Amino acid sequence: MLALRKQLSRHFYHIMLFSILATLLTWILGFLLFTIINQNKTLNPANYYESQIPEMVDKVNAQDDILNPDNQAMLDKIIPLEGLDYQIVNAEGQIQYGSMSERYLTSREDVFTQLNKNIYDNNRIVVYYPIFDSGQNFLGAAGFRYQLSVISANAESRMLLFSLFIFAIITPFVYIFLCTFIIGRRWAKRMKEPFNEIIAGAGKIEKQDLNFTMHNQSNIKELHQLVAAFDKMKTALKEALEKQWGMEEERREMVAAVAHDLKTPLTIIQGHAEGILESNHELPKRITQYLQTILLNCQRSIRLIQELNDVSSYENTEFYLETEPVNPEVLIQNKMNEFRQLCHAQNIELRASIHNPEGNQDLFYLDPFRINQMLDNILINSLRYTKERGTITWETYISEKELKFIIADSGPGFSKENQVKLFKKFFREDKARNSADGHSGLGLFIAKAIAEQHHGKISANNHPEGGAVFTVTICNMKYK
């Protein structure tokens, strides 16, 4: 098992070694292939045309009246123009004729000083040789231009040699790229495996599935340590969560047991109190007040016990909705009529409306009991904090796939510091929306749980003009 830095160095050396070996092998094979293709041909050396210049000079000096342009056709046949350019100049450096149009000698002095010397024109060489007549009188000079390269010296194989030259240059870069790609891809795959396992493990942890083991044994030291550390963290988290889950389960069981044990005697007390109050016997006013107090607190305690049972149900992972097809307009209209009476009894105006812009008449799949419970909790909350002669506005929007409720009241609204805590268990706001009836603080928690069970959401905000606004969205369970 090597460290990441050493592995990177080793891969770099492998890339360079394989690239060099592959390049040398390719060059050897390319040379052999070229030799086979040109086995019946002789490859001219780079100075092939340079070596022919003395012979060309002798042939030029052998001609009569060589400065006469009429001799150009004859020289064009003698001189191999595929590799040599030539130029005939007089003693003043003036061009008489030839295949070179560039003027390299501009004066008589240039002619004498540049004879038998190399003049460099980019990658070409120009040389001027003296011309004499039969009486050895100086007439001028013959210039020749050529290139010292194997490619220019082999006109027939020029394209093949040029391609081979380009191929020889790019070969090492091609092999470096290929080796880097192949080795890098293999290394990236090995690097990816532990990260993929960590990502998969994180996904399982997110789903509260901690019954897995990290199996990847990377040969990279740092990655091996990372996987091992993640596995240790998962094990520690599993132990902590199992302990917490156990405590939560014990708490839920205790709450359910206490609620069950309290509900029966409270129901009996409530029944007896109601029986005495409903009897025809005349009771002292003081006794009647005591009985009414007992009855009121029994009802409140039974309601709290029922809410605790509901909370335990929603926290149970095996809890399921009992969905059924329902006409949403009928369900909502019935609830509106029910709360209109409650609002009227407290001298509060309820402004309720149903909007169905699509004219959807399809049945909506939901749990009607739980939706009624959710609406009860929200509307009772608004009713609790709305003063006499106040207003509660309830707007419902119906579409094929969701129901949206917007419920606003004219109460004091929420304090900013407590707005994020509204849907927590047992939370009661004691400032802006102070309660005098001793409610449990479970209503909005239960409403949020019901909305989320229907794949929806609930939010609470303050209206700009004052008061609280609840926005609830629930989905048609037919599509879930």
UniProtKB/TrEMBL annotation:
Its EC number(s): 2.7.13.3
Entry keyword set: ATP-binding, Cell membrane, Kinase, Membrane, Nucleotide-binding, Phosphoprotein, Transferase, Transmembrane, Transmembrane helix, Two-component regulatory system
Superkingdom, natural source: Bacteria
Membrane spanning stretches: 12-37, 159-183
Protein name, UniProt field: histidine kinase
Source organism: Oceanobacillus sojae
Matching PANTHER family: SENSOR HISTIDINE KINASE CPXA (PTHR45528:SF1)
GO cellular component, one term: plasma membrane
Topology in the lipid bilayer: Multi-pass membrane protein
